Amino acid sequence: MQSPLRSSSRPVAIWVYTGVIMLLIQVILGGITRLTGSGLSITEWQVVTGALPPLNHAQWQGAFDKYRQTPQYHILNSDFTLADYKLIFFWEWFHRLWARLVGVVFLVGFVVLLLKRKLQWWMIRPLLILFLLGGLQATVGWIMVASGLTGDAIYVAPAKLALHFVFALVLVSYAYWFALQLSVPGKARLPASPALRRWTIASLVLLFFQLLYGALMAGNKAATVAPTWPDINGSWAPGGLFTQHPLLHDLVGNKLTVQFIHRSLAYCLLVCVLAWTVTAARLTAVPAYFRRLRWLPLLLIAVQMSLGVGSLLTSPGIIPHQWVAFDWMAQLHQVGGLLLLLTIVGMLYLVIPAYSVTV
Length: 359
Description:
Layout: H1 9-35, H2 57-67, H3 71-75, H4 82-115, H5 121-146, H6 158-183, H7 194-220, H8 247-253, H9 255-282, H10 288-293, H11 296-314, H12 325-351
């Protein structure tokens, strides 16, 4: 059974919502780090001492020398000066610093709320799971970075980047679900509607795979392989799809296949959200807030698809180490995906019976 919402849950809810916002910012910073090509600029993982950037010229030169030993430098950035290096160093360092701040906020908040006896027994398990997910996400992040520091790699492995992104989505979604538990009373949920529940679950499953393939698009730099719309280089099913073996390698590494699946999932998701919206619009005995919010998923997916098309069409204008129209489109596209995810997760919370939402 879910524990009833009490007044003591308010400070815990504020703390968890703060963590959700910080996690969203962390994912956005990850996108900026990727788009600026900064992810491999720091070649070591130092949990404590790495919180500080180089503080003098000798330290900067030492960090730059380590970067100059990477394949990315030799193959892609051999013309870099120390000033160029400092620019890409900043985003990777800030991305890692923000991750540390998220950890501090969760840890300090946990200790303070525990000492003030604001934490009820039923809150402990989800909080421990959040800590474990956070630690796992940090570990996967370093595994991802390490994949780009060896051999002839000039970027991180696309599959590992996608894994890192998926773990981030799971962490954000779980924290948001727990925050909803703390702040949304059972009486605010919707009357039983099996059809709406089914469409909500279907939308969330499709969105999960859509976001996964969005990360594979980013990791493979797959936008430029077919920068056209609505066709794919003049065809709806171009040659080159599903041509690599084994099949799994094609599904995660064939740029054309990855883009084709990403586009196809977008259309399927649009149909699913349309069905969800029609089903939601037919419900009559619903709270006033839901009557206002039930159009939000459709609005968000329309904006999201527009940004996706914009990213494709502007991808030929990509200029290395310059922030151009494509980068704006791609970053906003990622933000739109995060907002859509939280919206669907929130809707799922509202349509699932109160007794089954305990995390």
